[in-house]
């Protein structure tokens, strides 16, 4: 970890108020002079602890919690008390604790949000309060230098669907990851739930549900509500990054297209997932010594992530390999809940999938199921894909039959079960490893343990292909340069930098992506690449020279270390 900031912060809170402010609370780490100045001498036990000692104590306490969800609740409570301790603790145990505060465990915390609820965190903008939205917004943001807003309407949380107000839990988790992995000051970011109701019947029937218990608002009323929020962001925080997370498939891409020319907006499920998957695939084709544009790619689940991945890979084939877009499109075979996306499905196909629709003639005589759909196995048999990507939320969809068939058609099947949380992965990498006799090159959306090599030799490390390996760097690179937008080239620059850090480059038997243990360093590199590209494109609003970028990026990162405080009645609160 780099050197702590030393300048004393002027703080106006005293006594109980500073102890209940997670931003300023240091607990037993307040020094004796701070205790005097802030009225804490009688409010703290005698001994002054270091952050290191506090982390040790908190880690010991955490270790007594025996299930992931209890650990998640403990950490949430720590975050409510003391940010430096929370981030300091997780930074010291990154690989162990990210799965507790993020996927997979956060999915359970979100699904049980109303029952686990203790206190609110972030901003709740609720449809029936639309009239007072500006007031409610300013209540939490007035006078604050907000650089990042992470928002969700919670219609498609991870792979667990509509979670209503519980969706605040994905925005707070994504914001925490920004802080941990890209050093974004938590006091400069805000997590927002746009509560437009829920179509989740179980939540609607639950008397303890704390969100607005009505069906989702849709159509014009929905668009107006979202627009009101985005215009507030633009008005009060024109240089901020607005991050969209886990919107439903009918809104995600549409909203990105509407707003990307107005403000620096980013859709993580489309752009972040596309970028991290591109990096993993670039690394895999390095191992197989083939070109991206030579791959025959089956994308199973043509929703928000599926489309984002397809477009990103397609654009990279065009930009990196120089193939025509129409030829690149032909390398993709998309599946959705109605089977292979082919011409005769007509209006069932969303407009944004049109470029990738397979011609019916190609499938004449192919076996179909009793609904007339062409199934995954038959496509695998006929197309002999080199790449199989899952983002369908359908756990176990890559069956033994499908995976064995794929391995018959290609030497090194590239298999990415990306659905989260772990139980929704399209295949357990351990099984795919056995069914392909250890030949599969794999990456998964949630963490999985290494696989034994059936032919002996070292274990195969399954890369975690989660957008968290790249979105904090993409976002930070855009924010720090005050870029007017996060352009496609900035995203590709980030993905290429990530791919360049792949362990498989040096050793083809290694993981396709860097380990999450190194996720902060990795995201720092991504941020540098993104900032350099923003400068090259002339869309940055800073006048740095290229060789200053690294220093600027690193020196502006927030670190989980205690600053010295001085009491000042006109100071921060
Ligand atoms: N690894 C990562 O970084 C990321 C992973 N994901 C995961 O990808 C999954 C999908 O997320 P989104 O695209 O946001 O959701 P989505 O709801 O937009 O997309 C899911 C798609 O799968 C389709 N589908 C459902 N059942 C199917 C079936 N039996 N066969 C084929 N297709 C089927 C749906 O019709 C829908 O189009 C989730 O589990 C999510 O956690 C999403 C973003 C990032
Ligand atoms: C990782 C992520 O963004 C998702 O599963 O939705
Ligand atoms: Mg997501």
Automatic annotation (TrEMBL):
The keyword NAD applies. Residues 270-535 form the Malic enzyme NAD-binding domain. Keywords: Metal-binding, NAD. Divalent metal cations. Prefers magnesium or manganese. One of its GO terms (biological process) is malate metabolic process. The active site is at 102 (proton donor), 174 (proton acceptor). GO terms for cellular component: cytosol; mitochondrion. Its cofactor is Mg(2+); Mn(2+). InterPro entries: Aminoacid_DH-like_N_sf (IPR046346), Malic_N_dom (IPR012301), Malic_N_dom_sf (IPR037062), Malic_NAD-bd (IPR012302), Malic_OxRdtase (IPR001891), NAD(P)-bd_dom_sf (IPR036291). Belongs to the malic enzymes family. This is Malic enzyme. It comes from Daedalea quercina L-15889.
């Amino acid at each position: 970890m780099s050197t702590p900031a030393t300048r004393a912060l002027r703080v106006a809170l005293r006594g109980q108020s500073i102890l209940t402010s997670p931003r300023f609370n240091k607990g037993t780490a307040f020094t004796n002079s701070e205790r005097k100045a802030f009225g804490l001498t009688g409010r703290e036990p005698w001994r002054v602890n270091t952050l290191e000692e506090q982390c040790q104590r908190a880690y010991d306490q955490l270790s007594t919690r025996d299930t992931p969800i209890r650990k998640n609740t403990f950490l949430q409570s720590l975050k409510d008390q003391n940010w430096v301790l929370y981030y300091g603790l997780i930074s010291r145990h990154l690989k162990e604790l990210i799965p507790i505060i993020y996927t997979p465990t956060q999915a359970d915390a979100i699904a049980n949000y109303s029952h686990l609820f203790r206190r609110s965190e972030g901003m709740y903008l609720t449809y029936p309060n639309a009239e007072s939205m500006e007031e409610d917004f300013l209540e939490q943001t007035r006078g604050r230098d907000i650089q990042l807003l992470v928002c969700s309407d919670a219609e498609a949380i991870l792979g667990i669907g509509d979670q209503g107000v519980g969706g605040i839990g994905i925005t707070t988790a994504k914001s925490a990851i920004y802080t941990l992995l890209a050093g974004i000051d938590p006091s400069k970011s805000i997590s927002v739930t746009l509560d437009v109701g829920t179509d989740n019947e179980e939540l609607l029937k639950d008397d303890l549900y704390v969100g607005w218990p009505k069906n989702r608002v849709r159509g014009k009323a929905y668009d107006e509500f979202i627009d009101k929020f985005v215009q507030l962001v633009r008005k009060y925080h024109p240089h901020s990054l607005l991050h969209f997370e886990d919107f439903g498939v009918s809104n995600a891409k549409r909203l990105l297209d509407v707003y990307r020319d107005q403000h620096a907006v980013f859709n993580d499920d489309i752009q972040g997932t596309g970028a991290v998957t591109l990096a993993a695939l670039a690394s895999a084709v390095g191992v197989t010594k083939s070109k991206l544009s030579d791959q025959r790619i089956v994308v199973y689940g043509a929703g928000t992530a599926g489309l984002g991945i397809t477009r990103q890979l397609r654009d990279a084939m065009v930009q990196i390999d120089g193939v025509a877009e129409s030829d690149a499109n032909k390398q993709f075979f998309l599946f959705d809940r109605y089977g292979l996306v082919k011409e005769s499905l007509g209006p069932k196909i969303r407009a944004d999938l049109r470029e990738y629709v397979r011609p019916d003639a190609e499938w004449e005589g192919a076996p179909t199921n009793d609904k007339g759909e062409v199934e995954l196995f038959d496509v695998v048999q006929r197309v002999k894909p080199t790449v199989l990507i899952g983002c369908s939320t359908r756990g176990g969809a890559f069956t033994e039959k499908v995976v064995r068939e794929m391995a018959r058609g290609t030497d090194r099947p590239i298999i990415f079960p990306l659905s989260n949380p772990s139980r929704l992965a399209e295949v357990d990498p351990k099984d795919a490893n056995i069914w392909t006799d250890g030949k599969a090159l794999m990456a998964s959306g949630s963490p999985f343990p290494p696989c034994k090599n059936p032919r002996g030799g070292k274990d195969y490390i399954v890369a975690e292909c989660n957008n968290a390996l790249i979105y904090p760097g993409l976002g930070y690179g855009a924010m720090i340069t005050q870029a007017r937008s996060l352009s496609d080239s900035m995203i590709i620059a980030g993905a290429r930098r990530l791919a360049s850090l792949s362990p498989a480059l040096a050793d083809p038997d290694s993981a396709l992506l860097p380990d999450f243990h190194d996720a902060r360093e990795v995201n720092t590199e991504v941020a540098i690449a993104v900032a350099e590209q923003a400068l090259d494109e002339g869309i940055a609003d800073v006048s740095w020279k290229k060789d200053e970028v690294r220093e600027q990026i690193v020196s502006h990162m927030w670190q989980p270390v205690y600053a010295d405080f001085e009491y000042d009645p006109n100071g921060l609160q």
